[in-house]
Amino acid sequence: MRRAVCPGSFDPITNGHLDIISRASRLYDEVYVAVMINKAKKGLFEIDERIELIREVTAEYENVRIEAFHGLLVDYCKQRDIPAIVKGLRAVSDFDYELQMAQMNNGLSGVETLFVPTNPTYSFLSSSLVKEVATWGGDVAHLVPPVVLEALNKRLRKD
Ligand code: PNS
What we know:
Elements: E1 3-8, H1 15-27, E2 30-36, H2 47-57, E3 64-69, H3 73-80, E4 84-89, H4 92-109, E5 112-117, H5 127-135, H6 146-158
Parallel strand pairs: 1-2, 1-4, 2-3, 4-5
Helix pairs in contact: 3-4
């Protein structure tokens, strides 16, 4: 069984994330989407809400599992016998930090990181920018799945 993990904060999941997850799901038998818990960073969405949104937008991919995890990504991989981390690379600006993490993770446990070039349509896209634009009333309908747009609008109107 070939397994891989797509890790991230997913606060919230965007079309860019979804593109990488769907491509990983075609390459591997089982793809884990790991929502990494960072207690130092309060998100817009609670972990359970992020998971539910991911679950809804990945429902069509039968080999995708979603979980929250607190700790080192290499430990998550070890516990589930996952040899590969799949990450999207948007631009050269992503490369420095992603390379550092990939090398650190490989040095810690031998886990490999596979970089997938982001679909150019989403090369500028991040959860942070989506939240900022949506906060000020900008249109992000083309950047996130409809259910995420609805959750964003609800959250931002309420808070
Ligand atoms: O979506 P993000 O916030 O860019 O994802 C970053 C994430 C969660 C993948 C990264 O911070 C991570 O792997 N965190 C888990 C803790 C860990 O293993 N840190 C060491 C990385 S070398």
